[in-house]
């Protein structure tokens, strides 16, 4: 993790300090990342975990806003820990971290419900943006991870199962918003594109996720690509 200055102060998070749990089985990396994050305004590292099972326990005890989750750990790997945490605490946002954006790793954590995926050499300013985005319910994928996810979707191999066709449940405006999500647009960009307020865009995204029964924008983008809505 290379250190560089944060670019936007507290960013979009306006509901208080973002409480973060850092999970990694490499002590030096975990401690260094925790130190860098703790120095950022509006972010508090509430605990560190050296493995997946400890992460599940601490997430239950402390209920952090965001969990930074190592993908590969000896006791309980990141995708399994992610799934357990989200089953018990669905409001928690999880950003996966790994050394290399391996295709299988990306697919596994996205399927488990992670809100983001970054490589461990991501500069600290970009990682902070990802944490703040996750806290606001916004997906954040590294370019390589996004390429992997969409590539697998287009080959229809992410899980091998057809999506239920719930598009008819969406209003015309919600379908427009879903198309823009699939193009990688965030709420502010969607608002500008459609001439609506960011709050209205955020409400549309929340309604889309609820109607489609999806946990994050990543899954919504996957759904949209599968249905040809992009």
Described by the principal axes of the CA atoms, the overall outline is globular
Count of beta strands:
6
* Sheet with most strands: 6 strands, parallel
- The top-level CATH class of the largest domain is Alpha Beta
Q: Count up the helices.
A: 10
Intertermini distance: 34 Å
Judging by the overall fold, what is the CATH architecture of the largest domain? 3-Layer(aba) Sandwich
Helix content: 40-55%
The average pLDDT is: 81
Backbone CA Rg: 17 Å
Low-confidence stretches: 1-14, 157-162
Question: What amount of the residues lies in strands?
Answer: 5-15%
CATH topology name of the largest domain, in short, is Rossmann fold
Structural class: alpha/beta
**In order across it, which strands form the biggest sheet?**
2-1-3-4-5-6
Structural domain tally? 2
Please summarize what this structure is.
By secondary structure, this protein is of the alpha/beta class.
